[in-house]
Design brief:
The structure is a single chain. The chain is α+β, with helices and mostly antiparallel strands and about 475 residues long. The chain folds into 3 domains: about 70 residues, no CATH class; about 100 residues, Roll (Pdz3 Domain), CATH 2.30.42.10; about 260 residues, 2-enoyl-CoA Hydratase, Chain A, domain 1. Helices cover about 35% and strands about 25% of the residues. The protein has 11 helices and 21 strands. The relative contact order is 0.11. Belongs to the peptidase S41A family. InterPro entries: ClpP/crotonase-like_dom_sf, PDZ, PDZ_6, PDZ_sf, Peptidase_S41A, Tail-specific_protease.
């Protein structure tokens, strides 16, 4: 193959990703700046193909081009990047919050890293309905052994078009022989809203009331997918029905997601005021809360706290800042991640896509909390906790919090489906100390108890004066 043919085969994805249209003419291409840049990359690739110490197969050539793309794009910022088709599919799954599969979360077994176990079945999914349980070991998927297999490879084998079938072989913990099961794939929705603890009468449901005496509700939101607002409305309905008088919105570890979902979530708790402003080059666009008689009006009046940490990013920060700056809630915990930019995904003609930072966002007060790659801890970035509301955690406390969440998300199996052997936790070596309490959530409840107490005193005082 000639040097130029090879170069153009290798450079084609780069040309497509850049959005440039190079027109072939009977003579030579015009030597404008864009063409010169493309020619430089093509020349480099051709020299690598010709002179590198060992031959490159097609997979390595493709990886080289993708790495060159992402190496250059990430010099713009850390969130602008090229997606090949596999990465794009995963990104879309996370953004939409749904996928075609059998409905369980899996991980490598702590006791034997060569084996894959089910961490928890997802309620309503085929695996859950078939009686699969937390701790069951996946031995085979179709005709492939899972010994030594990475979870991502196993996931690709299991995912597929809803309505199609997949055969898996499962070894229940303590069982002598594996069991072959055929599951029909379905559209799986991975919930992003949870509560304090699972309902003991129905582990697919949540108990949100963290303080039964003061009626303080705790709602956890783990991401902003296309169904976050819908799930949150269901949780708010349940909280209001239970007599909630105050809310804790837990956004810790929430990496963000869709901008429109962040706006809608903030709007649920705001009767008015700004939510966010996005700025793109020379234009801006602002969103404000709508006082439109929505059915969650009471939720806009209850005392409220937002829990955040260094893992709270992007859409989480939009919600936290909007509620904080409108005086609707205090922020408790640690400073947030500091991602004040918005990305859009542009599909490419030959497959894959490029995710580009197109906007930055500003809080209602006009602050830009984005943390640049060269930022120092002493610089201003992220959403800071309110005065007196910062909670520093020890390494042990952070570990216990992760363990607590891990255990909280586990559903042993479907109620009424008798297990073949007693179910065991997927991570039996992870244990919480007796009477464990979440320091950040405790701080939130302490604040809200005082807030509710102050409201009660004012009501009593007002009644006394009126009498």
């Amino acid at each position: 193959m000639s040097r130029w043919n090879l170069a153009w085969l290798l450079i084609l994805p780069t040309v497509l990703a850049s959005g440039l249209m190079l027109r072939f003419a009977s003579a030579s291409l015009p030597k404008d700046k864009d063409y010169e840049r493309m020619r430089l990359i093509a020349d480099v690739l051709a020299e690598v193909e010709k002179n590198y110490v060992e031959p490159l197969d097609d997979a390595r050539k493709q990886k080289l081009v993708e790495d060159m793309l992402n190496g250059g794009l990430r010099r713009l910022d850390e969130h602008t990047m090229y997606f090949n088709e596999d990465v794009l599919s995963e990104f879309q799954t996370q953004s939409q919050g749904e996928f075609g599969g059998v409905g369980f979360i899996m991980a490598l077994d702590n006791g034997n890293a060569k084996h894959i176990v089910i961490k928890t079945p997802l309620p309503g999914g085929p695996a859950y309905d078939a009686g699969l349980q937390a701790g069951d070991q996946i031995v085979r998927i179709e005709d492939k052994s899972t010994e030594g297999m990475k979870t991502e490879e196993a996931r690709k084998l299991i995912l597929g078009k809803p309505g199609t079938k997949v055969n898996i072989t499962v070894l229940r913990r303590g069982a002598a022989q594996p069991e072959a099961i055929t599951l029909t794939r379905a559209l799986i929705e991975q919930p992003v809203v949870s509560g304090l603890a699972r309902d003991p009468n129905d582990p697919t449901k949540w108990d949100y009331i963290a303080d039964p005496v003061n009626k303080i509700a705790l709602i956890r939101v783990s991401g902003f997918s296309g169904k976050t607002t819908k799930e949150l409305k269901v949780a708010l309905d349940q909280c209001e029905a239970a007599g909630a008088k105050a809310y804790i919105l837990d956004l810790r570890g929430n990496p963000g997601g869709l901008l429109n979902e962040a706006i809608d979530v903030a709007d649920l708790f705001l009767a008015g005021g700004g939510i966010v402003t996005t700025k793109v080059r020379d234009s801006t666009r602002s969103w404000t809360a709508k006082d439109d008689g929505k059915p969650y009006e009471k939720a806009t009046e209850r005392p409220m706290a937002v829990l955040a940490d260094q893992g709270s990013a992007s859409a989480s920060e939009i919600v936290a800042a909007a509620l904080q700056e409108n005086g609707r809630a205090v922020v408790i915990g640690q400073r947030t991640y500091g991602k004040g930019s918005v990305q859009k995904v542009f599909d490419l003609p030959e497959g894959g896509a490029v995710k580009i930072t197109t906007e930055v966002w500003l809080t209602p007060a006009g602050k830009h909390f984005h943390r640049v790659q060269t930022a120092k801890e002493t610089d201003s970035w992220g959403v800071e906790p309110d005065p007196g509301m910062k909670v520093d955690l020890t390494e042990e406390q952070m570990k216990n919090y992760v363990i607590m969440l891990d255990q909280l998300n586990v559903i042993p199996g479907k109620p009424g489906v008798a297990p073949k052997v007693p179910p065991l936790p997927p991570r039996p070596d992870w244990t919480l100390p007796a009477n464990y309490k979440d320091p950040v959530a405790e701080k939130g409840m302490e604040y809200l108890r005082k807030k509710l107490s102050g409201m009660t005193r004012r009501v009593v005082s007002s009644t006394g004066v009126a009498a």
